[in-house]
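Review box. Two proteins, two foldings.
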Amino acid sequence: MEISGADNEAWSMNEIDAIPLSAESEVVEASDFRWDGNGFEAGIGVAASGGGFRAMLFHVGAFLRLAELGLLQQAKRVSSVSGGSITTAWLASVWPDLVTADFANMKDVFVSPMLAFARARIDIMDAVIGLLPGTSAARQVAKFYDKHLFQGRSLQDLPDQPQFIFCATNLQTGVLWRFGRTYAGDYIVGRLDRPDFPLAQAVAASSAFPPILSPLVLKFADGSFQDWPTAPSKPITAIRDFRRTVILTDGGVYDNHGVEPLIKRFATLFVSDGGAPFARNSGLCRNWVSQLRRILDVTDNQVRALRRRDLIGRFKAAAPLSDEASLVAAQGYGRFGSYWGIDTDPSKLAPEGALPCSPKEVAALSGAPTRLSNLGDDVSEKLVNWGYAICDRSVRANYRGSMRQVAPAWPFPKRPLA
């Protein structure tokens, strides 16, 4: 049996039983574990998927529209993976400026810097430099992020509200690793309280796309980690080894939607998915390398499809309920909110006044490569427009809560998608 959820990481009970026991430290059952002592509650959680610069720009447009509708401002937690973590880390960096201006300055302080950063060429150059002794591709990416975007900010510079969570995958424990202002860690290894990591390093871990930009290796002194306060069950062997060296890869390996820290915690979820659509191809090569790559793609697609199916099922289950209070009182399976993907068919979501979107145009955008590299101004601005337009369509078609009534308008009028 496998148990999974927002505050309960997936873990095979057979695997736990197979771990040799030691008295050095203890780990709790997944079904009993809570990250911060809180259960299901009212409030908005926002998730941003992985997908390189393609997803980064797609989320920029989506967040712009969420802010216009007055929903982004209400978020209690923003969770992200990989390319989405670049977007949300910059959002966190400028959050105080946005609050001061009631988010009327989104285009100036949030959108424009993201577009400027999207002109960078990171992945190949840093992968090559990362082959040199004494460094790695992930550390080179972190240096680039810090120099050209975050400029020395640390996790302790994040706002108190909303709580920003940047997700990576711990290759040793096989579960989700979280970076945040109040803690970093995973539910097996333990927690680092008030971590003072550079923000760029957290984002680099979250976007350490394997195998080229992965892994990011972190070293810790003995005593750095604390056990979780949840009641213990079974000890884990050699916990000190897990705590001295932590090997992280892209958060999308575990959950490319970024919903894991949200799904069992908040009653309302807005999920922006800029991940690459799965391509069906009748002419695949049959050599070992191509076959292995295709198998990994199929496995990844299946995991993502199951998460989407669960999410949509939750939205449907909430249909009979009227508000968050009734949902929380029932401690039910349902959730309010909406999901939109980069390959969502715009014709299936047609609220009044929706911006016109050509299926051919948006299909081309969904096929943009998963790279940390310049996609060109035309594609970049159209990706922002597309994230904005499909977020608008999905939220106004599916979300039943209150929002501002602001007519949509292209962020970049010279790049329409009609």
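Next protein.
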Amino acid sequence: MGKLVWTSIFIAALSAFFGERLINLRKRALASREVVNNHLPNCVLLKNIDHGSEDITILGNGLAFISTGIKYPGMPPSDAPGRILVVDMNDSRLKPVELRMPRNFDLDSFNPHGISVYIDPSDDSIYLFVISHPEHKSQVELFKFVEDDYSLVHLKTIKHELLYSLNDIVAVGVDSFYATNDHYYTSEFLKGVVEPFLYQPWSNAVYYSPEEVKVVSEGYYFANGINISPDKRYIYLADIFDHNVHVLERKEDNSLIPIKSVAIGTLGDNIEVDPETGDLWLGCHPNGWKLFMFDPNDPPGSEVIRIQNIHSDQPVVTQVYADDGHVIMGASVAAPYGGKLLIGTVFHKALCCDLK
């Protein structure tokens, strides 16, 4: 056959490959799904949060920590600074207060993503772990929270070659944690274009301590939210593109053993765990295609999923809230407290509703 024929065959094969990959990606992103509104009563948008509330975690006393201002590839551009806010859920005003950062901390490059809080049982000190992406790299900033004046004391910056594409984090000690790497590559082009098309289970979870850093679980398409059970025996991990939440058992050496996975039928982002009931709450993207291909005229919706009795033979998966994007776009986290539900987003606002 001539050169022209071979070229035509190659182009046809390449087109077929990309076409199949695009169809597969749209399927994984639930691109054809339309959201039916399922609203909760008495919902109010929090004031002065307009550039995301990507992760939220609430202390037992009702103080909710919120990360805001993330710059992330594929999201609408923003010049809003990265900040950590606190909202007192016991105060009916629900007024976000920006935490005062230390003077020697580089705020210009602060790009906060997933967060976690650890309370030292020996003295009740509160440690805040924040994933940050300066210049789209990955590192963890460790702070000590001073409640008297709502300030943060910066303790250290944690970097490691195994912490290369961090998404979410759960602290298990004053300087130890589990975290997810949501991609395999570090190049923005490879992460944002090549990797989604190839769609391979290359992402993982890592354990970090000053003594040891290791990959403890792998084989995920997009490892996202991570959290821990109230008894500290299990780790929960959301694979956003596989529409599952995985249950992993902790071992004495901090390795993780897969136990089961629970299908949630949506793109699960961050996970919060009710300390009393053990229920899992997830902020979710009901149609990820609209999130990745953002169009303000056809906004990405939001969804909140609760998983009850996750360790039983028949976990109960319930849609608690859904919106088509006209109230709140791109839900990434949902945290319950005192009969209320605080819903955060990747790049939009934050919403607080009454639970039925």
